[in-house]
Write a structure and sequence with these properties.
309 residues, cell membrane, Alpha-Beta Plaits, cadmium ion transmembrane transporter activity, 2 domains
Length: 309
């Protein structure tokens, strides 16, 4: 038996957030390139270059979210939930490419360091861009986590990384201006690039776990067991619980043992009760219950504990 629900509301919310990321990404990118143009700083160039990745990644997220919310069809009978993981993997790859481009520019600047032009105006503009990114990243992470959207969460964490690196760049460039040490500019850019590489690796590995059908964590597994136990009155036992996460969807499968004399209709009532309870507690859940007669039980006869084996 399976539980199916519509998700037009979450889809509209996720699409609006993804579209908002594109618009904000273009605006912030423009600010950062202005800051780089005014100063000539390779560190600010690295910050601006990462903003290009933000825009491309947000566009990929918008596409992935629209695909992931498509209903199941003959070719994808379990839905399209994993599409968002592909977006997250793409974002990780783009982050790595951006880091390599930054390192190339760092090498050029390291061989021929230059004095920063109009540093204070450029730093102020970059600071404003970082503040905008900070607010938006917080929104994406919170709303994306609530909506169980890997694409939005990955986008939010990437933008938050951008904020952290921007703060480091600004602090370092202030020190460079005050001390006159020209090598600080390319050094900061190199540190930004290394941090971006690390963040890109985290995004890629996290997304690959989702593509490999990772199970829910221990806390969520126990919560699922409690829900099933509290709503399985009439069943003799539940065993072989299996879970997997695919984007915002959680797939739950288990075997439920009932009295061999129980009718199909009576067993169906128990299944419906469990499914309704799971749907009420877990967003976008898909449930498969295998009903079995009592000779398939794994617990000793007469067991009165929680009906899990």
């Amino acid at each position: 038996m399976t539980a199916i629900e519509t998700d037009e509301g979450p889809k509209r919310t996720a699409m609006r957030l993804a579209a908002g990321s594109i618009a904000i990404g273009f605006f912030v990118m423009g600010l950062k390139f202005v800051a780089w143009f005014l100063t000539g700083s390779v560190a600010l160039y690295s910050d601006a270059l990462e903003s290009i990745v933000n825009v491309v990644a947000a566009s990929a997220a918008l596409w992935a979210i629209s695909v992931s919310h498509k209903p199941a069809d003959l070719d994808h009978q379990h839905g399209h939930h994993k599409a968002e993981y592909f977006s997250a993997v793409l974002e990780g790859v783009l982050i790595v490419i951006a880091a390599l481009l930054i390192l190339m520019e760092v090498w050029r600047k390291w061989e021929a360091p230059s004095t920063l032009e109009e540093p204070w105006i450029g730093l102020a503009i970059n600071g404003g861009a970082a503040a905008i990114n900070g607010v938006w990243a917080t929104v994406l992470i919170r709303r994306g986590t609530k909506a169980r959207s890997p694409a939005l969460v990955a986008d939010g964490h990437h933008i938050m990384t951008d904020v952290v690196t921007s703060i480091g760049v600004i602090a370092g460039l202030i020190a460079a201006v005050l001390t006159g040490l020209k090598f600080l500019d390319p050094l900061l850019a190199a540190l930004v690039a290394l941090n971006i590489l690390y963040q890109g690796w985290k995004v890629i590995t996290g997304s690959l776990s989702g593509l490999m059908d990772v199970a829910v964590d221990v806390h969520e597994n126990m919560r699922i067991r409690d829900i099933i136990s509290h709503h399985s009155a009439g069943a003799l036992e539940v065993h072989d619980l299996k879970t997997r996460i695919a984007g915002r969807a959680t797939f739950i499968e288990f075997h439920m043992v009932v009295d061999a004399a129980m009718t199909v209709g009576q067993a169906h009532v128990i299944c419906d009760r469990i499914e309704d309870a799971l749907r009420a507690e877990i967003p976008s859940v898909r449930v498969i219950i295998h009903v079995e007669p009592e000779d398939e039980a794994k617990l000793p006869p007469g067991t009165t504990a929680i009906p899990f084996a």
